[in-house]
Amino acid sequence: MATVQVKSEINIELEQVLNGVAKLDTPELGRFLSQVSILLARRKAPNIPKREAELLLKINQGLPGALQQRYDELTAKLQADTITSEEHDELQQLIDEIELADAERLQYLIELAHLRNLSLNELMKQLGIHHPQPHV
């Protein structure tokens, strides 16, 4: 796992932090993003009801890094027309898993929109969530 050394009384520019984050490999970046999402939800949690905080955590969870990395690898092979039949089957299984995760996330978004008396589109706009791109 990647480590970050931070000493007290040292100021680090946000750009330097982002440059360091950019060097993480895909699985580490996924874990980092998940942890940052949890931190953000915890900071907002004192100001929002418990169920909303739980939903925000689930909405921001993201895919496991290894699954995303394998999906990216297989998608690249598909686009390069170098994918084997077995890999294509694996890609289809990954797409099914991702679509299931997307459906669960959508359920959480709908519940949160209902709790906040907002339309789904308005909630997504507030949260900075864009409509997902279709999978291969």
Gap between N and C termini, in Å? Answer: 31 Å
From the helix content, strand content and strand pairing, which structural class follows? Answer: mainly alpha
Radius of gyration, Cα only, in angstroms?
A: 18 Å
- The percent range for helix content is 55-70%
Query: What oligomerization state is this entry in?
Result: single chain
Strands, total number = 0
- Main sheet: strands, sense, barrel: none
- The H/E string reads HHHHHH
Describe the structure.
The chain has about 140 residues and is mostly helical. The protein has 6 helices and no strands. The chain has helices at about 15-20, 25-45, 50-60, 65-80, 85-115, 120-125. The longest helix has about 30 residues, at about 85-115. The model has no long low-confidence stretch (mean pLDDT about 85).
